Amino acid sequence: MFENLNxxxxxxxxxxxxxxxxxxxxxVISDGLRMLRNLxxxxxxxxxxxxxxLGTDIQLEDLHPKAFIRKHLLSxxxxxxxxxxxQGVYDSVKSDLNGVKTDLDGVRDELKDVASSADFRKxxxxxxxxxxxxSFDADAT
Length: 141
Known about the structure:
Shape: flat
Radius of gyration: 36 Å
Oligomer: single chain
C-alpha cells in the first residue's frame, strides 16, 4: 500500500496525523484497525454463505464473473473448444510479429553498416580553392 512512499513522506504523514488528531491518534488507529477486521469478517461470512447456498467451495477471487463462469459453468472441453479458434489467430499474429521483428533486425543491421561506412568523425579536409583551379587547368590541356 505504501510501496511508492519513501520514509520522509511516511514520517510527514504521521506528523500531520499527530497534528490533526493529537492525543486521540491511538484511538483513531485502533478504530481503523477494528473497522478493517470487521470488513474482513463480513467478506469471509459472505463467501461462506455463498458457498453454502451454491453447494461448492468458493473463494473471494472466484467471484469475478469470468472466473466464476470458467470454474463453475464450463468444463475443460468447453473451454478448449472456445479457445481453439482464437488460438489459430493468436499463432498467426505471433508469427507475423516475429517476421516483422526479423525484418527490423535486418534493417537495423543495414543501418549499422551504413553508419559505420559513413563515419563522420573521420572527415577529410576539403581541398583548397587553388588546388581545384589547378586541377581544372590540367584537365583543359
